[in-house]
């Protein structure tokens, strides 16, 4: 740029002379000479400013169309490779807020992107205040902002844009568009709106889910249940049907009903199983009727609680089957000792389950346990209520639909969170014979949880359920007790609360640097008979002698009339996709029928797992057990995007029996 000093020098007049009045007159020409270029520059500057304003105005009208940045000279490409800068057209993945929206046909270069399927993107954006405006902005050629791509995980000031319109970052190497939309083009939702799913924008849809459970052996007939659930829906309205095909009942429809569910309210009519929510003495009914209730299913800000723990004693590696309503709903193999069963797949509600336990010597026994899966406290901003009315149904062998019993009922319940950590509920149930009242509370503290529920009916039957859990330092104590007083009613009187029973358990767990200890006591009695009592102590070491691959367990317990001693040593080695384990244990079970004194048992196993794909996982394992009845076991487990399946085969060479378990 030429300075004024340069022009003064060109006139051969030092700048100081301009300050001398005597020289001003003689210097007019030179001064005019110097001012003429300056004036010319000012005129050019005014014209340039006016031209730039016009250009900026035109770009503003185009919103995020071709910008000044795109007016820059194109990147140099070696001769013969000019096609690299040519426009391309293909399907691009579109992300918004870090989540995948859809894939859309797009024409692009490194610097410019034109979306050809704008409608697909707008249809997936549910929170637009002006969809038509966003549709217009997306249809304009967009600058790619390729310089904003994060080059590595350590890059800063990248991967995001602040925009007053619609902007993108296009990564040509990944064929990915990250979409950025101004907050003025997005809806603002209140907190209560954010608690629920938005209104459905789906039309007609169908979902079918098929599950198969099977268990049997070469010595006994197979037990199986083929369960199918079909859902036909339009927006929030749906027709639901659940059916079962079993080895005993053949084909039968368990539920068929119409339902509408939106923003926490549910309306149902048809044949279905009524769940009484937090009320544990109101059993599940299969009935023909209607129900009005508010639901947590459409909330998006809740975690649901799991059911209560079911713990059983196993004197050897055993097969445990779980039945509900005489239907197999879960089965699995468990190791010897006191084991907590996997109940994650059990449905919500309060009901009795029947455990069929087969030990390594093919001895079978049954136990009946009470199970409850509920949400302990209602949401702070939503009380829970339900009203159900209809006729109780009963599954009839050989019939497709359950038949009516003639027993009409109506029941209702209300639960509310009274403080942040304290909630209560009250409910009433009325049938043609009796009326039952149930009430209770739940309190959650910093280190404890406590629940107490009381029920009473017009027959004079009373019940109480109490549960307490306290956590301290590295341990916890759990107390649970349930009792029903039902001794004096007549045979023809059937209480809604249930038969007399007593169930109590106390468990204490503490963790130290030397291992984890557990003290336990359990008592179970139904109808004043068939009592079971278990108590003892367990100790587990995750590492022995400082070896990370070696662990150990020790247990001493008394189970009914049998004293049990168990000491085990376990070794685990893992490399790449292979896992190898070996276990040996010393076991003494005094008082068990057919007891042959202390025994030394063991097992070895190897498994191979491939989980390299995020959608698929495959597991194959082989196992050999030396027990009172030796066995060989193989298992195949597959979890894929199409479904999941497991099959386990166990062969006992001593008695030549083959068992299988599949789902």
Report the β-strand fraction as a percent range.
over 45%
What does the radius of gyration come to? 38 Å
Q: How confident is the prediction overall: mean pLDDT?
A: 82
- Detail the poorly predicted runs: 1-40, 42-73, 189-193
The counted number of beta strands is 36
Note the total helix count: 6
Into which percent range does the helicity of residues fall?
under 10%
Q: Between the first and last Cα atoms, what is the distance in angstroms?
A: 83 Å
Q: Give me the oligomer status.
A: single chain
What coarse outline follows from CA principal-axis ratios? globular
List the helices and strands and how they pair.
Elements (H helix, E strand, L loop, with lengths): L3 H7 L10 H4 L3 H34 L26 E9 L2 E10 L3 E4 L2 H7 L6 H9 L2 E2 L22 E6 L4 E6 L9 H4 L9 E14 L5 E12 L2 E10 L3 E13 L2 E10 L10 E10 L16 E4 L3 E7 L2 E8 L2 E4 L8 E10 L5 E10 L10 E11 L8 E15 L4 E10 L3 E10 L3 E10 L4 E11 L2 E11 L15 E12 L2 E12 L2 E13 L8 E10 L2 E14 L2 E13 L8 E12 L6 E10 L4 E10 L2 E10 L4 E6 L1
Parallel strand pairs: 1-6
Antiparallel strand pairs: 1-2, 2-3, 3-4, 5-6, 7-8, 7-36, 8-9, 9-10, 10-11, 11-12, 12-19, 13-16, 14-15, 14-17, 17-18, 19-20, 20-21, 21-22, 22-23, 23-24, 24-25, 25-26, 26-27, 27-28, 28-29, 29-30, 30-31, 31-32, 32-33, 33-34, 34-35, 35-36
